Amino acid sequence: MSDTIVVRMAQRKSLCQFSKKIIEPDTMLTLFTQDQYNSYKMKIKQFLSRLPEEIVEIIIEKTNYKYYINQWGILDYVDWSEDSRWQGFQFLGYEDSEDDIDDLI
Question: How many domains is the chain built from?
């Protein structure tokens, strides 16, 4: 599991796949990785622990988050990792490329 959280500022207006909110320029975005998805599933299972596991799995499946792995989204809706993992925070500038991201993860 990677300890790096990749963050950058939005450069243009777009739609966040996770929240369905408009992303304005200079909004903090983070990359939704497999680690983030695993943390998301774990937290949802904790929050909904009173429900049967089959129901929780259906809820997780219906969010379609697994299809958003390696996509960018608004930080507040995408970062499912523990706060302590921010020690691996990596901020990308406008000049960083997709290859730079691959090197980090």
Answer: 1
Radius of gyration of the CA atoms of the chain, in A: 14
Note down pLDDT in tens along the chain; length 105 residues: 455 778 888 999 999 999 999 999 989 999 998 988 999 999 999 999 999 999 999 999 999 999 999 999 999 888 887 654 555 455 555 555 555 555 554
Closest alpha carbon to 9 in 75, 71, 65, 70: 75
Provide the residue type at 50 as one letter: R
What range does the domain containing 61 cover?
A: 4-104
Residue type, 13: K
- Residue 44 phi/psi, 5-degree rounding, is -60, -40
